[in-house]
Amino acid sequence: MESDIWGDWRMITVKFKTADIAELVNRINANWTKVLNDTPMDYTFLDQNLATQYEQEQKLGGLFGIFSALSILIAVIGLVGLVAYSAEVRKKEVGIRRVFGASVSRIVVMMNSQYFRLLAIAMVIATPLSWWAISQWLDSFAYRVQISPMTFVAAGVAELLLAIASVAYLSIRAATLNPSQVLREE
Known about the structure:
73% of the residues lie in helices and 0% in strands. It is mostly helical. α3 packs parallel to α6. The longest helix is centred in the middle third of the chain and has 35 residues.
């Protein structure tokens, strides 16, 4: 049934500033009934509609957060395991280098440089892919935001700091072993 006043769209938007929402709804309903007494009034609040629309994205964001934390944890555990294995395998080499006068910092850099090189390659590959994926996802929204390059810089710095923090202890411990005990084992 088409109304002579609004056609098929029987909708009114009301902006209000009041603490007594129930009274406001009753007054609007009374005026609505005067104009269109055969059509019942159905109302919603804009903030509730927006919250409903973005509820799926909020759940998806929480899910991404959980899986990101799990993947970072698994990656850190793998990196620590790799460094521990490398330190054990290269224990004799580190001992010989220490005997010939290599400093602890030089040995730590030597042991970890290969991992940081791999992390840099991974960042070079992952940054454009993640930029593309985020851009595709953000294009589905009516209001778009631009992705700042600083986001990727911050993520890269955080990745390197986390890698340094996770392997520093093991590599320093391997570099500070007593060379005489390491070389005497074999």
